[in-house]
Every structure is written in C-alpha cells, then in structure tokens.
Amino acid sequence: xxxxxxxxxxxxxxxxxxxxxxxxxxxxxxxxxxxxxxxxxxxxxxxxxxxxxxxxxxxxxxxxxxxxxxxxxxxxxxxxxxxxxxxxxxxxxxxxxxxxxxxxxxxxx
Length: 109
Description:
Blueprint: H1 5-19, E1 25-29, H2 37-46, E2 56-61, H3 66-74, E3 79-82, H4 87-97
Helix pairs in contact: 1-2
C-alpha cells in the first residue's frame, strides 16, 4: 500500500514503463498527502501515462464538491465512494468492470 499521491505516481509510472502492467483497480483518496488525488490524476493525464491503460480508479471522497467530482470524472475516475471504504464496495467496483473474472489477490482488497 502506498501512502501518498507522489508515491502512487512514481509506482505507476515505473510499472507502466517497464512492462506496461498496473493494478486493475486503483483506490485513491481525494485528500492524500504530498500529492492529493486530484493532483495525481492531473499529473497522470498531463504526462500521457493514462493512454492505453485499462485501470479503474475508485475515489474515496469525503466532503468532495460536485465540481470536484465532475473534474475527477473528466480526468478518468470511474467510481466514487464515501469513507471509510469497505471490502464489499471494493468488490462491487471490481466485479462491475471484470464480471466473471476472479479476483487475483483478494488480500489487496
């Protein structure tokens, strides 16, 4: 588990550069330290890192404005949920996009 948006950006940048793989479901928080969720999504978009990437972004939102939600959607976030995240919500998001697929590592959820 990564603890801030900059760590997430670095990790994803390297993963996509080396072998073009990444997590299928990326859970991010709107209010992460160092680089928040909005900053992370902007940086990924501006750098072109999201081109040809099939990942689902789930945003943990608490007191997030409708304008911010709209902006997150424009930047590629597909799913939104309130904090705290429960396992059932993560599994619902996963199965929505990969119905019939098995969860590769349920411990990560």
